[in-house]
């Protein structure tokens, strides 16, 4: 009886291993085919003019200058806002508040907000920032909306990073006469910083690929200028790609593939930066 159960478990284990392997290979093959089609269609359009030209109704003159600069504006302004608010919230919940029903309620709501569809944040941004604060279709309205979108993710990842700091390091700091803030600023934050930075950069990677919230707050689909200040109208790479895919000409689909390549390179660069910063600071602390 025992030997029969052992054989059944062994067969089940092999079957599960083969099934998981097939699922992994299927996903990799699908991704490989998709990347091949994108590169094959869009690589020929990647040149200097593509990066310096603005959107145009003529495929040969179309480019990503406005969309690329708009995406850079969004990331550069969203990052600091979301970082300070998210890390500050995580520090307060983990280091200052006592565990109670109220903190548990806040924690549950933060986790729920991390799973809210992005278009809901777009509706909130439209009501509060575009109409309430009268920012209109400015870069700043998009920045505030995307900050709200990534804030729950940064709070959760920062909390996990802070929890990973061993308690004996805090106790050693207190034993040496350090205050609460000295312990947090000189022990907790430096130790947790690699994982915090990783969470922040990955959250910004999500923000740079979002389309729905920015469409709701009024990001334009056709922009023939570079936003010079946070109060200027703007567009971003995902919206520009969506605009090209909706055009009837086949050349615009190829240009959209080139835009996807640019977006993928930006996302890959941000992820590599997250890995680099994490490894760098882990060696230091």
Could you describe the 3D structure shown?
The protein has 285 residues and is mainly α. The chain folds into two domains: 3-45; 51-280, MetI-like fold (Orthogonal Bundle), CATH 1.10.3720.10. It has eleven helices and no strands. It has helices at residues 2-42, 48-52, 65-96, 101-114, 118-132, 139-163, 167-175, 180-208, 212-217, 237-245, 250-284. α1 (2-42) crosses α11 (250-284). The longest helix is centred in the N-terminal third of the chain and has 41 residues, at 2-42. The protein starts with a helix and ends with a helix.
**Residue share in helix:** over 70%
What is the arithmetic mean of pLDDT? 86
Distance between the termini: 54 Å
Count of individual domains: 2
**In the CATH hierarchy, what is the superfamily of the largest domain?**
MetI-like
Low-pLDDT stretches: none
- Look at the helices and sheets and give the structural class: mainly alpha
- CATH architecture annotation name of the largest domain: Orthogonal Bundle
How does the overall form come out from the CA principal axes? globular
Number of distinct helices = 11
Q: Nearest-angstrom radius of gyration?
A: 23 Å
Output the CATH class name of the largest domain. Answer: Mainly Alpha
Question: What string gives the helices and strands in order?
Answer: HHHHHHHHHHH
Q: How would a textbook summarize the main sheet?
A: none
Strand content: under 5%
CATH level-3 fold name of the largest domain = MetI-like fold
Task: Please provide the count of β strands.
Answer: 0
GO cellular component, one term: plasma membrane
GO molecular function: phosphate transmembrane transporter activity
InterPro entries: MetI-like, MetI-like_sf, Phosphate_PstA
Protein name: Phosphate transport system permease protein PstA
């Amino acid at each position: 009886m025992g030997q029969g159960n052992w054989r059944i478990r062994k067969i089940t284990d092999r079957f599960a291993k083969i099934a998981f392997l097939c699922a992994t290979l299927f996903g990799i093959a699908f991704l490989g085919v998709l990347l091949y089609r994108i590169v094959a269609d869009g690589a020929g359009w990647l040149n200097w003019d593509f990066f310096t030209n603005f959107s145009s109704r003529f495929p040969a003159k179309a480019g990503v200058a406005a969309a690329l600069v708009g995406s850079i504006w969004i990331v550069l302004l969203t990052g600091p806002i979301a970082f300070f608010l998210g890390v500050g919230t995580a520090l307060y919940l983990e280091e200052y508040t006592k565990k109670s029903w109220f903190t548990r309620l806040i924690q549950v709501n933060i986790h729920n907000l991390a799973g809210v569809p992005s278009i809901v944040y777009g509706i909130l941004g439209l009501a509060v920032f575009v109409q309430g604060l009268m920012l209109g279709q400015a870069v700043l309205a998009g920045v505030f909306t995307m900050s709200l979108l990534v804030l729950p993710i940064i709070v959760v990842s920062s909390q996990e990073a802070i929890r990973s700091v061993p308690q004996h390091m805090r106790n050693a700091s207190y034993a040496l006469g350090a205050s609460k803030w000295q312990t947090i600023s000189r022990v907790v934050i430096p130790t947790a910083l690699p994982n915090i930075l990783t969470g922040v950069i990955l959250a910004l990677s999500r923000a740079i690929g979002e389309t729905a919230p920015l469409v709701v707050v009024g990001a334009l689909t056709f922009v023939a200028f570079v936003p010079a200040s946070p109060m200027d109208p703007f567009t971003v790479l995902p919206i520009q790609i969506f605009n090209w895919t909706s055009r009837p000409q086949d050349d615009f689909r190829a240009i959209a593939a080139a835009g996807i390549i640019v977006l993928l390179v930006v996302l890959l660069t941000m992820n590599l930066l997250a890995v680099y910063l994490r490894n760098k600071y882990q060696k230091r602390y």
